[in-house]
Give the backbone structure.
Amino acid sequence: MHKNVVRRALARTAAVGAAAALAALGLANPAAAHVTVSAANTVAGSYTVLTVSVPHGCDGEATTAVAIQMPEPLYAVTPTVNPAWDVEKVMAELPEPITDAHGNEVTERVSEVVYTAHTPLPDDLRDVFELSLQLPEETAGQTLHFPVVQTCGASEHPWIEIAEEGQNPDELESPAPFIEVTAADAAAADEPQATAAADTGAAEDEDGTDPLLYAALALGAIGVLLGAFALARGRRRA
Ligand SMILES: [Cu+2]
């Protein structure tokens, strides 16, 4: 009777652990399996690297081209070469010339970046495209959308849907990839707390009282004890 109780408890712990791991891997979030964009950082005014991920083809078809549209506030972007693809910047005339951060007059902007495959990307393989750019100060607090048209030979899948105010983008069939630009001061405001938290962590480390480490050790010790106990019981009975 007692052995079963232990076995059930261990099984339940393992199940909870597995569920947490699945959630962490984002398998619980279907939107994560669409064409998405992530940013090295999202602070307004800063330079960042955006990563556009293409995790599958168009209804099973291999991908032959990926066209990434750049939102209006952005005018300059440096695409990262990807050896399996050709890359092209599509330029568009600016309504009014602007002056860039280096004082140069700019009359056109990069409206689109197009990657064309040397060999089609199979449906069950993933690739990523990195774009280096500066997030303009004035986009602080804004959501920037990067509509993507994914071409798969003769067919296309446009990832261009934009959520209405208050709508969850995960509900959309083909959401346009997006990032939320954070205000520099908001990011700076978070910084001290982060440092304080890091400091406290460091202090604890210094005197060796890292709670997580001890929790893991304790769990391990319990596991060993349980095993030894079960073993001893088993021997006594034999
Ligand atoms: Cu998808």
